[in-house]
Amino acid sequence: MSDLMYDSPLEFMQEARLSGECVAQSVIPRGDGTYVCACSCEQWETIAPGREEGLRLARRHTGSGQAPNQ
User: Fold this and answer.
1) How far is Cα 29 from Cα 15, in angstroms, rounded to an integer?
2) 47 FRET partner, CA 20 to 30 A, in 18, 29, 31, 32?
3) Closest CA to 42 of 12, 19, 69, 10
4) Interval 9-56: pLDDT, tens
5) DSSP labels for the chain?
């Protein structure tokens, strides 16, 4: 069985932001080629030089996707 999203993305993001928890992260391109990265906890925001680095930083922030040797 697959997961279904019943809320629109905007509703989901509003609920995630109100929760104050690390339930949603964003990696959004800026006009200068960098990416602004943020979390729904509102305690983390940074600029990354690329999309992959932004995703890596988001994973590090939430503690997910860490290999044992990292």
Assistant:
1) 23
2) 18
3) 19
4) 566 666 666 667 888 888 999 999 999 999 888 899 999 999 999 999
5) ------S-HHHHHHHHHHHTSS--EEEEE-TTS-EEEEETTSS-EEEESSHHHHHHHHHHHHT-S--TT-
CB-based contact 8:15 (threshold 8 Å): no
From residue 12, how far is each of 24, 36, 49, 70 by CA, in Å?
9, 20, 27, 31
Q: 52 φ, ψ to 5°?
A: -60, -40
Query: CA end-to-end span of the chain, whole Å?
Result: 33
Amino acid 47: pLDDT: 97
Q: Which residue, chain included where needed, has tokens 């999309």?
A: 51
Rg (alpha carbons) of the chain, rounded to whole number:
13
